[in-house]
Amino acid sequence: MGGTFENLSERKHSPEGVRSVRESRAELTAEVLALERLHEASTRLWRSQDLHSGLAEILDASILLLGADMGNVQLLNPATRMLEIVAQRGF
After folding, report:
1. What CA–CA distance (Å, rounded) separates 26 from 8?
2. Which end of the chain, N or C, is surrounded by fewer C-beta atoms within 10 Å?
3. Torsion angle in degrees (nearest 10) through CA of 26, 32, 38, 40
4. Residue 71: beta bridge partners?
5. pLDDT, tens digit (0-9, with 9 covering 90-100), for 19-56
6. Checking phi first, is residue 67 left (phi over 0); if not, alpha (psi -120 to 50) or beta?
7. Minimal CA–CA distance to 41: which of 27, 60, 28?
8. pLDDT tens-digit profile of 61-76?
9. Which of 28, 61, 18, 24 lies closest to 43, judged by CA?
10. Of 69, 72, 70, 68, which Cα lies nearest the Cα of 83?
């Protein structure tokens, strides 16, 4: 097992370090908000009587969380044993 240690105190207080910390905080905040939205959407999905609208909400939250431009949700059709796209964005 190996490791590397570095003193970050000087870098942390430099203009570049401050900017980096701010960018990291902003990214983390955005990810936390997206995860909260995904959790809320998944909770609504469990309570929803309409699977497709619930999956569309999950897809929207996942795209936001990942910072993606597009995405889809596929479900396995047991009769055909094929994946079918049931929700999509950006294609």
Report:
1. 20
2. N
3. -120
4. 89
5. 788 888 888 888 888 888 878 877 877 776 778 888 88
6. left
7. 60
8. 888 888 899 999 999 9
9. 61
10. 72
